[in-house]
Amino acid sequence: MSSTTLSIEGMRCSGCAENVERALRDVPGVASVVVDLDHGTAVIEGGGEPQNLVSAVKTAGYAASIVPDVQQNPSIV
After folding, report:
1. How far is 72 from 40, CA to CA, in rounded Å?
2. What Cα–Cα distance (Å) separates residue 38 from each residue in 10, 55, 72?
3. pLDDT tens for each residue of 26-65
4. Class at the top of the CATH hierarchy for domain 3-68
């Protein structure tokens, strides 16, 4: 199962994190979502297309970007 990590800007409270989680769970192919309010990230497991995940977060009212997979791109570190 693939995993995608998003950096999310604009979450200020647990309600914001719940809104982001709900938006991501609605994306076809998503199996699970873990939103970390303190770090401003979300880890999504499943077959959701990364751009669809970003779009879902933006539609919910937050800025989002894909965090590169360090294991596949060690030069990023």
Report:
1. 22
2. 11, 22, 25
3. 999 999 999 999 999 999 999 889 999 999 999 999 999 9
4. alpha beta
